[in-house]
Specification:
The protein has about 290 residues and is mainly beta. The protein is built from 2 helices and 16 strands.
């Protein structure tokens, strides 16, 4: 094969690869692992407003720029946006099921401004993992319970995602024990999402986008521990953590959306050009 042919083939492949590299928000179908559809046309997972978050060892003092913090999260999904799910979070004994989200994200403090007796701080994600679980009587787990922290990382883990470095989180605490904030992080799938539980008609699910509002006091999101259980198919992904006196416990109301690989409009030309070049090379070989 000539040097020119090598170069042209590489450029063609780059065009095809570039066209396939984009991603877009996707509607998904939720299933029970047995071939039954539970909800379709789902555009987002709406998580319980009693979701819990904790920043280990953060206390009530203002954070320090550059410091690394461990943030844990757990919540059950209360509804599927865009679809009906009458048995979601119903009694396991009566055939109900639940979907839960658990995460451990490492944050780095990017800015701190003191405001009176309080502070405003921003953070970015530098590492971490999130996982999705489906649980029912058949899966052998326990129903999630906010107060005890049980039942959020058991049942069948059908998706694991690593955080994409970056994102943004901010928190304003005017006084100790009060505050409000928000967070938005993106995750990339590890391996593949189990299509027996979650799938999309537009392609394989490649990413997960998490956004939330956070507040103090913690109220109905108070819990004594995080990640108490283990899945029946992947073991114990997250280490159990007991909440301590120096931790910052938060009320977290989260939402999760998903992405699939979809060519961007500007990339279709690259895709067609790449395929055209492959065709040219094939014709050139036949003519030799």
């Amino acid at each position: 094969m000539s040097r020119l042919t090598h170069l042209v083939r590489a450029l063609a492949l780059a065009g095809v690869t570039s066209a396939l590299a984009a991603s877009a928000f996707a509607s998904v179908t939720v299933k029970d692992g047995l071939g039954n559809t539970l909800a379709s046309g789902v555009t987002a997972f709406d998580e319980n407003e009693t979701g819990s978050g904790v920043v280990k060892g953060a206390g009530t003092a203002a954070p320090v720029v550059g410091a690394i913090q461990d943030y844990l999260y757990q919540a059950n999904v209360v509804s599927f946006t865009g679809a009906l799910s009458p048995t979601l979070n119903g009694s396991f004994a009566a055939g109900g099921y639940e979907v839960t989200v658990s995460a451990h994200v490492q944050l780095q403090v990017t800015s701190v401004n003191l405001v009176g007796t309080g502070y405003v701080a921003t953070f970015k994600a530098i590492g971490g993992t999130a996982a999705l679980y489906y649980d029912s009587k058949l899966e052998g787990g326990v129903k999630s319970d906010t107060a005890s922290g049980n039942g959020f990382d058991d049942g069948h883990m059908f998706g694991m995602f690593n955080v994409t470095p970056g994102g943004v989180s901010s928190f304003f605490s005017p006084t100790a024990g009060s505050g409000i904030g928000s967070a938005a992080f993106n995750f990339q799938v590890v391996g593949a999402v189990d299509g027996n539980y979650l799938s999309s008609s537009t392609g394989p699910i490649t990413g997960m986008n998490f956004s939330s509002n956070q507040s103090l006091p913690v109220g109905t999101s108070a819990t004594t521990s995080f990640h108490n259980n283990s899945s029946n198919n992947f073991g114990d992904l997250f280490t159990t953590y007991a909440v301590g006196n120096n931790d910052l416990l938060l009320k977290v109301d989260g939402s999760t959306t998903f992405t699939t690989p979809v060519p961007e409009p500007s990339s279709y030309a690259l895709l067609l050009a790449g395929l055209g070049v492959f065709g040219f090379l094939a014709r050139r070989r036949r003519s030799l």
